Amino acid sequence: MKKTIVTCCLVPTLVLSLASPSLAAHELSPEERLNLLEQRQAELYTTLAEKKTAGLHTPITDRINISGLIEVEGFWSDESIADVDDKASDLTLATAQLGLDAQVNDQLNADVTLLFEEGEDFTIDEAFVTYERGPLGLQAGLLYVPFGVFNTNMITSPLTLELGETQDVAIVASYGTGLFSVSGFVFNGEAKKKGKEDQIGDFGLALSMAPTEGVEFGASALANIASTDAELLAGVDNEYKDAVGGWSAYALVTAGPVEFSAEILAAMDNFELSELDVDNNGKGDQPMAWNLELTYSVEEDLTLAARVEGSDELEAPELQYGIATSWGIMESTALAFEYLHAEFDDAITRNGERDQLTAQLAVEF
């Protein structure tokens, strides 16, 4: 089974976003805004957290900043599943994100992000407050918990994000220095234990370290991986007999113009057979995803990237690899092209292959 997809994307993304703890809401000076421009010549963001704070944070009052990001995508695809070819093409508004960040006082910030994504309703994506006092931080509201990092220089999100991204109303406490940071979080996820009351029961921990310049690594854990946005147990009404935890680990190494990143995210144990068995092998699944990327900055505004990633016992490519290039064609504007080849587990998608070519235009302000 062969699947070929060629995708062409024009992505202007409009985002007004309140800053996260790493980019606390405050009025940026002209020098800081220029520095943001210089750092984002080729890629406007490389992680989920950076995407949520993308934009120039232009002050509209003494305390409130506004940011914008627009992404438009188009694609052409030719895929073959079970020896049946299927071709399609489309042009879509992939993302329209609008955010505000407000500095309430010297220690308290407020963030609101509105988001539209193709196929989804326009919604409030994030709305939270951040309290910071020295190395200590506290967040409360609708946000993405720090489970997984999802670093990428490609257009398509990594499979680790598909499995681990987790958005909910949560409380996150953190402590950070220049050497390391640690955070703990608690929320009430969608997945519930059978026969139990609906109550707060999901929690996790994240740790990252930067022992020397150009080296960063970390890990995180989640008490119940069924509570991620992957909704692994949607087929059984998000109910489980026993919770299955999740874990992730990542490393990021930069040496001159070269950057290497690696991440793995997986369940800690098998689910019950009656709860999850996507490969129909008669055993409960233990889903896992991994991603490796190598990036080379040819010039300040031109990068080349290569990816190899995969998954196990997940409705996603078993193996996927490809290349991408991103070019900062002007301030706050990037044009990118990507090619990916995917191979699927025959037990999940019979004789499945896919080739995908993507072009993307992204604009932030």
Characterization of this structure:
It is a single chain. The protein has 365 residues and is mainly β. The protein is built from three helices and 20 strands. The chain has helices at 30-39, 48-52, 159-164, and strands at 4-6, 58-59, 64-81, 84-103, 108-117, 123-133, 136-144, 167-176, 180-187, 192-193, 202-212, 215-222, 239-240, 246-255, 258-267, 288-299, 302-312, 319-330, 333-343, 353-364. The strands form two sheets. A 16-stranded antiparallel beta barrel has the order 3-4-5-6-7-8-9-11-12-14-15-16-17-18-19-20. A two-stranded parallel sheet has the order 10-13. Mean pLDDT is 86; it is low at 1-41.
* Low-confidence parts: 1-41
Helical residue percent? under 10%
CATH class: Mainly Beta
For the report, how would you describe the main beta sheet? 16 strands, antiparallel, barrel
Structural class of the secondary structure composition? mainly beta
